[in-house]
Amino acid sequence: MKIIHSISEIQQLSRDLAQEGKRIGFVPTMGFLHEGHLSLVNVAKQHSDVVVMSIFVNPTQFGPNEDYDSYPRDAERDQKLAAERGVDYLWMPEVSQMYPKGEQTKVVVTELTRGLCGPFRPGHFMGVTTIVAKLFSALQPQIAVFGEKDYQQLQVIRRMAKDLLMPIEIIGVPTLRDEDGLAKSSRNVYLNEEERKQVLYISQAIKAVQQAVKKGEKQVQKLLSLGKDILAQAPDLQLEYLEIVDAENLQKLEVIQRPARVLIAAYVNHKRFIDNGALT
Amino acid sequence: MKIIHSISEIQQLSRDLAQEGKRIGFVPTMGFLHEGHLSLVNVAKQHSDVVVMSIFVNPTQFGPNEDYDSYPRDAERDQKLAAERGVDYLWMPEVSQMYPKGEQTKVVVTELTRGLCGPFRPGHFMGVTTIVAKLFSALQPQIAVFGEKDYQQLQVIRRMAKDLLMPIEIIGVPTLRDEDGLAKSSRNVYLNEEERKQVLYISQAIKAVQQAVKKGEKQVQKLLSLGKDILAQAPDLQLEYLEIVDAENLQKLEVIQRPARVLIAAYVNHKRFIDNGALT
Cα–Cα distance between A44 and A65 in angstroms, integer? Predict the structure, then answer.
């Protein structure tokens, strides 16, 4: 595995691979890799000839009171895990390279970012779409793989790539979970045992809603009540939102008649967790 | 010369040329070609192996009271002129292809679009940067050539390409002029003889400011007065702005101490004209 820092090296790699007719599979991450990230590498390998993973904790997608400074980082461990999993190139840019002096260009996706996490994290999705557009422009991959754990982000990036006519196929990969159901996340490292118990109600609420839909319940109000009842059992969990939306356009639904998604965001001890699940 | 309509064909062409190691030189236009556009083709040919010209009258960069519907169009004549000048591929997309159903992604450059034409044409530059980002993403050229006639646009696009880490060299080409000094523009077709006389004061004011700078005048207030005096001689010319700014960041100057630019926008009979010139 080769480690790349500079943009010009990534652009050159892109040109060289294009000339060789090789398909680039891209896995953008913020590092502190876990099995969820590594499962994206497996998928990228299935769809491409060369896998490039980026590790970049992007400052512009964190709010002023969020955890940019304390976001978990471990470059050495990440390099080892990426190499073991068969990543060909690990791209680790500096902030000053991704945001050149005097930079003032933003990429914005409008409707899809208005609901769910959007109002609670102003500027977050603009940070995400801007950085992903930069990563895509410099590398020009044919395939890019994202986890469904950040489901709204996945839909926003799909829309951006389509709207900007990028010749990139966006692949979403189902969330990996620990045995107790907790969605794998770099931020889980923040949790102590007691907090983890509280957070588990999130995945349990999602599972309960999914099972109710499987059994035939289509009324969103009833499904939301069911989910909220479960979340209410967690005394220290502060719900930000529980919503059931169209799986593609993320608009709220009243009745489930087409592919839908249940999404939850909640705090435990000022730490924010999100999770979601498919409803079909 | 091959004519291409579909995005997928352009994306395929881009892949094929990349695999052959050919450099793509791109000339984006809104058509109704004149010698100014064709001079861009000459420059593109010098810097690339294959020249692609696009013709697309982009609706999102026209304001509601602007001339989108009446903008001059002549596809047949454009095709002939492009072929004669040696364009290899002429890309003529439809609006529905550039703006897919449900599209909601915008590319925004902030500071550089706040002055000059920005406040007078709200949304114009967002329309420009969004469409150019789409054209660049689909074609992935190595070189893109723009006229200096739209100087603010040129600087905005340079900034966008740099900020988004696009591996594209942006080349600006000096404005071509008719013998009387009028900057070549597709919109000149709107002018009758009397109006043309009025519009000529714009290029004359620019030339006078340039000459004063050459003779040693560095005070912007004096240079602006000189320009305004000339424009005041055109009875039917309505000045929108006359400004002298830094040539790169477009910030207003008080004294000319580094590369600068004089820019004018004015109306004659409700028709808007812009022009500019270098001050060094």
Answer: 34
> What is A2-173's CATH number, 3.40.50.620, 3.40.50.300, 3.10.180.10, 3.40.50.720?
3.40.50.620
Q: Which residues contact B48 (CB under 8 A, 6 or more apart)?
A: B22, B23, B24, B25, B141, B142, B143
pLDDT band at residue B280 under the 50/70/90 scheme: confident
Helices (DSSP H) in chain A: which residue ranges? Answer: 7-19, 35-47, 75-85, 95-98, 124-139, 151-163, 193-214, 220-231
Determine contact, residues B274/B117, Cβ cutoff 8 Å. Answer: yes
Cα A46 to chain centroid distance, Å, stands at: 20
Which residue's structure tokens are 């054209």? B135
Task: Express each pLDDT in A155-199 by its tens digit.
Answer: 999 999 999 999 999 999 999 999 999 999 999 998 999 999 999
Of these residues, B34, B37, B47, B124, which one is catalytic?
B37
Contact list in A for residue B134 (CB cut-off 8 A) is 163-165
* C-alpha distance from residue A198 to each of A192, A225, A244, B57 (Å): 10, 19, 22, 56
ipTM attached to this prediction: 0.96
Three-state SS string over B33-65 comes to CCHHHHHHHHHHHHHCCEEEEEECCCHHHCCCC
Taking the C-alpha atoms of residue A175 and residue A259, their distance in angstroms, rounded to an integer, is 17
Distance CA A127, CA A121 (A): 11
Sheet containing A24-29, strands listed edge to edge, beginning at the edge strand earlier in sequence: A2-4, A89-91, A50-55, A24-29, A143-147, A169-173
Q: From B101, which residue of chain A is nearest by alpha-carbon distance?
A: A163
Chain A CB contacts of B103 under 8 Å are 159, 162-163
- Alpha carbons A259 and A252: distance in angstroms, whole number: 12
CATH class of B186-279: alpha beta
What is this structure's pTM?
0.97
Report how far apart, in Å, the C-alpha atoms of A48 and of each of A21, A117, A141, B244 are: 11, 32, 9, 51
What the block records as the tokens of B55 is 């013709």
**Chain segment B166-211, per-residue pLDDT in tens:** 999 999 999 999 999 999 999 999 899 999 999 999 999 999 999 9
- Superfamily for A186-275? Pantoate-beta-alanine ligase, C-terminal domain (3.30.1300.10)
- For residue B92, the 8-state DSSP code is -
